[in-house]
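Run log // design_07
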């Protein structure tokens, strides 16, 4: 329901991504009613007249023109849909729910079907672009679901992203997102291999990155994560745990569709190795630590030796 002619969004999940998306919605003139199970996540939000911290989940959903979730994984979205005071319990028929998390495409289709029986339209609208894309409002948003729902959600998408594409029926957004993650994962692996080889042969890795970015090996990953990989900066951005979750979803989907993905299977095992060494909370770029182990290279020693 609009308040004083302002559109109202109920927003659930304000972690690394959601906190920026909420600010962009507020700055675009929408009222955002925000809920997160972690109070610190709510307290970390910027102060803005259009941002209202909800006292509970139903408080965030109440009277909203759209409900948006930005949650870690499939069970969290199911909890917000079916849990106490959640979407099924609170939203009236005719409501619009958009899940922008990366979750199972199969579960997405089941949820969309069940909600449609209650007159609630669900879209899946996962994103790409990372925290920087979320902060700058330049996310790529891939949307599955019905065209009418897409049109209703479009003003909200425009506040958060730049490339906004309706890619098909329920679940299609998640399929495209998983293809995105497959490419990202294999690309990170390729960069790790190139850096491990370059390092072992003693070349200046920053110089190598610069020249590669001007040629056909250039990529988003090399551009945004290359320097962190070279310097050994494992600090979190997109966490290894979340990327592993995405690769697991890719592999599950591939099994169901009977499509062999040998390169993705290999990369997934590198992520299992990283998690087994307690590195799940590191940023995605920290897959280089697996290569440090594989090449038995101590980073400090090799930097000295390669100079
Ligand atoms: P995050 O873990 O930083 O944030 C998720 C938030 O959801 C947390 O604050 C958590 O407390 C909250 N939460 C969990 N369960 C909840 C519940 N039941 N009710 C209310 N709040 C709940 O995750 P993130 O990095 O912001 O990612 C969110 C989603 O976006 C994931 O599916 C991820 O795969 C996807 N994604 C992340 C990135 C990235 O670079 N971080 C990029 C693209 C897509």
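design_07 sequence
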């Amino acid at each position: 329901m609009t308040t004083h002619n302002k559109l109202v969004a109920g927003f659930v999940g304000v972690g690394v991504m959601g906190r920026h998306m909420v600010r962009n919605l507020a700055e675009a003139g929408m009222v955002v009613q925000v809920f997160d199970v972690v109070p610190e996540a709510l307290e970390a939000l910027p102060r803005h007249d259009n941002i209202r911290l909800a006292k509970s989940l139903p408080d965030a959903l109440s009277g909203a023109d759209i409900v948006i979730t930005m949650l870690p994984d499939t069970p969290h979205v199911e909890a917000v849909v079916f849990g106490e005071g959640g979407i099924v319990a609170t939203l009236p028929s005719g409501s619009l729910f958009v899940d922008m998390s990366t979750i199972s495409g199969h579960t997405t289709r089941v949820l969309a079907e069940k909600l449609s029986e209650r007159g609630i339209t669900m879209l899946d609208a996962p994103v790409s672009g990372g925290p920087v894309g979320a902060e700058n409002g330049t996310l790529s948003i891939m949307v599955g679901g019905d065209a009418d729902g897409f049109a209703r959600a479009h003003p909200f998408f425009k506040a958060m992203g730049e490339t906004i594409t309706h890619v098909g029926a329920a679940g299609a957004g998640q399929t495209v997102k998983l293809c995105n993650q497959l490419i990202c994962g294999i690309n990170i692996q390729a960069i790790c291999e190139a850096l491990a080889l370059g390092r072992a042969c003693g070349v200046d890795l920053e110089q190598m990155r610069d020249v590669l970015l001007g040629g056909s090996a250039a990529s988003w990953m090399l551009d945004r994560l290359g320097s962190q990989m070279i310097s050994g900066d494992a600090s979190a951005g997109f966490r290894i745990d979340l990327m592993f979750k995405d690769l697991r979803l890719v592999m599950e989907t591939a099994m169901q569709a009977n499509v062999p993905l040998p390169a993705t299977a290999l990369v997934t095992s590198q992520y299992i190795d990283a998690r087994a060494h307690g590195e799940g909370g590191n940023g995605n770029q920290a897959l280089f630590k697996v290569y440090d182990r594989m090449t038995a290279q101590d980073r400090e020693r090799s930097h000295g030796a390669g100079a």
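The CA atoms of residues 218 and 265 lie 24 Å apart.
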